[in-house]
């Protein structure tokens, strides 16, 4: 699957410090999650004065919001590639499997996006909110179903809940699949198929109503 784009440290030019801070923070989060971020440490790592980052970010939370928005944008590129790629699997299955792989392989960034309060604090219309809404739009598109009320949105929530549960439990070593003799990927596909069926039933019921 796609990889988070990484730029070498200390290669930014004058005026690019904002982006350099975001990319450096992404690398730190890859290793240690959002808790690893220190503006002071990033400034030292990039070879700039301690006050320099504050010309671009008011505080640590502002930096993390920008980093999370960038993570969502890069995540959306991966998801777009997944659902547009031809294959025997449905678009929804390809989306779910790509998102699962992302969560399992890049857990630090995944936690920043989906297991921290950064997203919850993003105001509507902000770059973070916009990028996250694009993720939701891609998931809804992957259902390949007509828009009827909020039926697709409700089923999308089921996909996210299942995906998040698998990723977080697996990261804690609490979901091996051994009890049910099923892999995490197979479990995700079962959730996808059950959700698609539930949406089909709901759409049929809506047509008869």
UniProtKB/TrEMBL annotation:
Keywords: DNA-binding, Transcription, Transcription regulation. InterPro entries: Homeodomain-like_sf (IPR009057), HTH-type_TetR-like_transc_reg (IPR050109), HTH_TetR (IPR001647), MT1864/Rv1816-like_C (IPR025996), Tet_transcr_reg_TetR-rel_C_sf (IPR036271). GO terms for molecular function: DNA-binding transcription factor activity; transcription cis-regulatory region binding. The keyword Cell division does not apply. Coiled coil: none annotated. Residues 15-75 form the HTH tetR-type domain. The keyword NAD does not apply. Residues 38-57 bind DNA. PANTHER family: HTH-TYPE TRANSCRIPTIONAL REGULATOR RUTR, TETR-FAMILY REGULATORY PROTEIN. This is Transcriptional regulator.
């Amino acid at each position: 699957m796609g990889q988070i784009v990484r730029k070498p440290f200390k290669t930014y030019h004058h005026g690019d410090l904002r982006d350099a801070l975001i990319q450096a923070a992404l690398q730190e989060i890859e290793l240690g999650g959002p808790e690893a971020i220190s503006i002071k440490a990033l400034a030292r790592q990039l070879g700039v004065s301690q006050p320099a980052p504050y010309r671009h970010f008011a505080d640590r939370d502002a930096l993390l919001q920008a980093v999370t928005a960038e993570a969502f944008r890069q995540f959306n590129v991966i998801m777009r590639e997944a659902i547009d790629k031809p294959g025997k699997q449905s678009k929804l299955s390809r989306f779910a499997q790509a998102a699962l792989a992302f969560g399992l392989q890049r857990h630090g960034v995944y936690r920043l996006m989906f297991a921290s309060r950064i997203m919850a604090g993003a105001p509507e219309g902000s770059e973070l909110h916009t990028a996250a809404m694009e993720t939701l739009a891609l998931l809804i598109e992957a259902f390949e179903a007509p828009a009827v009320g909020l039926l697709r949105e409700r089923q999308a929530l089921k996909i996210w809940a299942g995906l998040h549960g698998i990723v977080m439990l697996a990261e804690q070593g609490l979901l091996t699949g051994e009890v049910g003799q099923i892999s995490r990927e197979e479990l995700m596909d079962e959730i996808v198929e059950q959700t698609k069926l539930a949406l089909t039933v709901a759409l049929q019921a809506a047509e008869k109503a």
